[in-house]
Amino acid sequence: MSRQSLKWSRLDNAAKIFPSTSSKQDPKVFRFACELCEPVDPEVLRRALGRTLEKFPPFRSVLRRGLFWYFLEQSDLVPEVSEESSPPCSPLYNPRRRGLLFAVTYYRCRINLEVYHALTDGSGALQFLRALVYDYLLLRHPDAFTHSPSALDFDASRSEREDDSFRKHYVPERKGRGEKAPRAYHMKGALLPGGRIRVVEGSLPVGAAAAKAKELGVSMTVFLTAVLLTAVAGEMPARERSRRPVVAAVPVNLRNYFESESVRNFFGVFTAGYHFQNGWAFDEVLAAVKASFARELTADRLARRMNRLAALEHNPVIRVMPLAVKDPVLRLSGWIAARGETTSLSNLGRITMPAACAPFIRAFDVFISARRLQMCMCSYGDRLMLSLTSPFVSTDVPKRFFRILTGMGLPVEISSNPVSEE
């Protein structure tokens, strides 16, 4: 493919901050994984990846630096499929090397998809992995699909998948001042070497977690956010509890509120927190989190937040500002936003696959690179996966989080990746 014929596109609004704020310690990479019931066949996986890429053109892009903005450029690079050999969520974007922004690896029965956040969000990456697993199983077990031609429930056109939904739904409005968030408590401690992360995963029955949330009168996400805030507070120094609230950033899939089939970024973020100087009663923490979700999760509130962020992109002064000046401004903006957040919780929801795939899939899970404690959750079938990632040597907060759940009678199976602390 000649350089003249290469197609380029602007980064979407949410993606613009990632190239400026990525680092070895915070590479902005997340991983989806699918655990099969049998060892992965690498050659079949390579063929399946070729098929899947034809349906997801944006994934063939590389990130390039322009005079005013970073942008995505379509490439003719061929992705490799290799056995997993690097630490999870290692950096994918290297400004000195022209490379794809995703990687597919395998290990025993597991297929891994790692993605740089400037390319897509969790929902877009999940659609890609679902298609990849479907194509793999279709090639690996063609007889199983002979009498069940069901396909994935994601049939967006090419233009819909490439759509910049932030630009599509942006509505200029009178500039208003956003609410100033209080400075949140930040965890401290010895860091793992080399920018590595520790992943502590808990697996439990979906039904048991849903029943507990229903008993408490809240959604599962509200319930687990309250547990996470309480676990962090349990490890806070006493003097900090009177000074700072514990705050969780909660990403929201905007496709659930605005029409979009894009596989690019289309998410918003709100916060839910609690100041533990007010007490430790779990029902009070739960009530505060529930109130935050009810207040923030409305189309109107999300649209106002989305338009406020998008307005910066449309500001004529910022648009003509050279990228060399924008980079430090965006890094400062990211630092200011992070001051108001202690941790984060991302719920990717229930993952579904065609019935013909069910006999071959054991589980899905997801986690993200971490400069602070982060939690991701998803479910498949009857299993709920809760993955906590952290750059810290200490595992006290994840341990406390799962002890709270088991103390409520929930049966949790825990696993962790081995990480050298030297």
UniProtKB/TrEMBL annotation:
Domain of life of the organism encoding this protein: Bacteria
Protein name: Alcohol acetyltransferase
